[in-house]
Specification:
Number of strands: 6
Number of helices: 3
Oligomer: single chain
Structural class: alpha+beta
Strand content: 25-35%
Radius of gyration: 18 Å
Distance between the termini: 21 Å
Order of helices and strands: HEHEEEHEE
Shape: elongated
Amino acid sequence: MERKVTHEKIIEFHKEIAERHKEINGFYRFDLKEIEGKMRSGIKSPALLLLSHSSILSTNPNKTTNFNTRTISFLIIDNGGKLDNYIKHNEVLNATELIALDVISYCKRESNNSASFLYNLFDVANVRIEKVGPVFGTYFGWNVIYDIKNHESMVFDESKWDF
């Protein structure tokens, strides 16, 4: 059985966003440990950095349908220059916030597109945006967090087990 939403589909969707948006110059996968260190060399910015999602499984009250709510988090960041250059930081925060809002509007559009994996799964009311920075030394921007909730069959497939 093919699942509608998978880790791979989430990665590909966000990679496509970074490739199509005219102001995003890079797409990167990263983990929280990297925030403590320096940015990798060769990063083009502004960049979209995608974390792996987390999930919460649930069942409706009458226990007839299962759901998988995935929380997706990505950063839109750019180099803010020297740490005491507050004018540059504000310019970067303004520009990256506008990009983040562009991405959210794209997700909203895709939630109405029956060919998209986000079809009927994305709700603007579930979006949170948090300022980040400085991270990786001198980068500033926004962490965009949103949930998508889809049916998850949870049907046991005996063929995948040796009993």
